[in-house]
Design a protein that fits this description.
alpha/beta, 6-stranded mixed β-sheet, 4-stranded antiparallel β-sheet, 10 helices, binds adenosine-5'-diphosphate, binds magnesium ion
Length: 302
C-alpha cells in the first residue's frame, strides 16, 4: 500500500464535509472528560485508562479501535455503569453515569440471550421491565424482530439460531428499550468473515432507520472505517485517545467502497497509528535462529 498515491485521509468531499458540519451542530449525547480507571491487582495498580476525553453527537456512529489491552472494554464498561471511573466524568444527555440504566443498550461479543426464552420473549424481556403489558410488549417486540429480519424466527429458541442471527436478536433486544446510546463491544468478533460483513451492513441499515447513537468497539481496521462517522484511536499503557479520525467515506456505505481511495486513505492512517514502524522493527529484532536453524531459508523469505 505504501506505493499507492492516496489522497490524505484529511481531504473531504463537499458532501462529506457538509455531513460533518451538520453532525457537529447536533446535541452532544455523550461527554467523557478526563476519564481514568485504575485497577488494583496482586502486582500493584494497573492504569487501564488515563485522561480520556471525547464527545459523541446525537445519531453519530463512533467506533473505537486500539491494540489489545488498551482499555476498550474498560471504557465501555464505565460508560455502561458496570465499572466505576477512578477519575473524571461521564455525562449522558447531561446526566452523570454511575450505574447501569435503560438509557444505554448493550451488545457484547459473547451471546447473551436467555436460552430458555424464545426470540420474541427475549426481546419482550426489556419491554416488560419497562412496565409494558403483555400485548404491547409482544407487538413492539415483533416490530423490532422484523427490523432485524427475523420475523420467521420469533418463536424459535436461541440454540436453533446461527451466531449472526443471535447477535441480530441481541441488537433487537437492546434497541427495544429505546436507549439513547447503543454500546457495542466487538459484537461481531466471534463471527466468520462473511457473516461479519453481512452483520455490518445490517447494523448500518438498522441505524439509518432509527434515532440512535452508537459507540462500537472493534479491533478490525476495515470494520472501524466501514461503520463510523468518526473513529477514536486509543493508545495503550495507559489507554488514552491518540487521534480522532473523521472518516472521509460518503454514506450510504457499501462494501464496494472498501477499495475506493477515501477508504484506503483512512485505512493507511489507521495502519500507521496501530502498527507503527517500531512494531515491525521489534518483530525484526526477534531472535528466531533457534527455531529455523542458522542459514536455512524458508519459502516465506524474500
Ligand atoms: N477487573 C480487572 N482487574 C485488573 N485489571 C484489569 C481488569 N479489567 C481489565 N484490566 C486490565 O486493564 C487493561 C485494559 O483491559 P481491557 O479494557 O479489557 O482492554 P481491551 O478491551 O482494549 O483489550 C488490561 O491491562 C487489563 O489487564
Ligand atoms: Mg476488550
Amino acid at each position: 500500500m505504501a506505493d499507492l498515491q492516496l489522497p490524505s485521509y484529511l481531504v473531504q468531499s463537499e458532501t462529506v464535509k457538509a455531513r460533518f458540519d451538520e453532525l457537529k451542530r447536533r446535541d452532544v449525547i455523550l461527554e467523557v472528560s478526563e476519564l481514568g480507571k485504575t485497577f488494583e491487582s496482586a502486582n500493584g495498580p494497573v492504569t487501564a485508562l488515563e485522561g480520556v476525553n471525547f464527545r459523541v453527537h446525537r445519531r453519530e456512529f463512533v467506533t473505537v479501535i486500539g491494540p489489545s489491552g488498551c482499555g476498550k472494554s474498560t471504557l465501555i464498561r464505565v460508560l455502561a455503569g458496570l465499572e466505576a471511573a477512578t477519575t473524571g466524568e461521564v455525562l449522558l444527555a447531561g446526566h452523570p453515569v454511575d450505574t447501569p440504566g435503560p438509557d444505554r443498550g448493550m451488545v457484547f461479543q459473547g451471546y447473551t440471550l436467555f436460552p430458555w426464552l424464545t426470540v420474541k420473549k427475549n426481546v419482550m424481556f426489556g419491554l416488560r421491565n419497562q412496565g409494558l403489558g403483555d400485548a404491547d410488549a409482544s407487538r413492539d417486540a415483533l416490530q423490532w424482530i422484523q427490523l432485524v429480519g427475523l420475523e420467521k424466527f420469533a418463536d424459535v429458541y436461541p440454540d436453533e439460531l446461527s451466531g449472526g442471527m443471535k447477535q441480530r436478536v441481541a441488537i433487537a433486544r437492546a434497541l427495544a428499550a429505546k436507549p439513547r446510546i447503543l454500546l457495542m463491544d466487538e459484537p461481531f468478533g466471534a463471527l466468520d468473515a462473511q457473516t461479519r460483513s453481512k452483520m455490518q451492513s445490517y447494523l448500518l441499515e438498522i441505524w439509518r432507520h432509527i434515532d440512535t447513537t452508537v459507540l462500537f468497539i472493534t479491533h478490525d481496521l476495515d470494520e472501524a472505517i466501514y461503520l463510523a462517522d468518526r473513529i477514536l484511536v486509543l493508545d495503550a499503557n495507559p489507554g488514552r485517545v491518540n487521534e480522532v479520525i473523521e472518516v472521509p467515506v460518503p454514506r450510504p456505505r457499501s462494501p464496494a467502497q472498501f477499495l475506493q481511495p477515501e477508504f484506503l486513505s483512512a485505512r493507511q492512517r489507521l495502519d500507521e497509528l496501530i502498527h507503527p514502524p517500531s512494531a515491525t522493527e521489534e518483530a525484526a529484532g526477534l531472535d528466531l535462529s533457534r527455531f529455523v536453524g542458522s542459514g536455512e531459508k524458508t519459502d516465506a523469505q524474500d
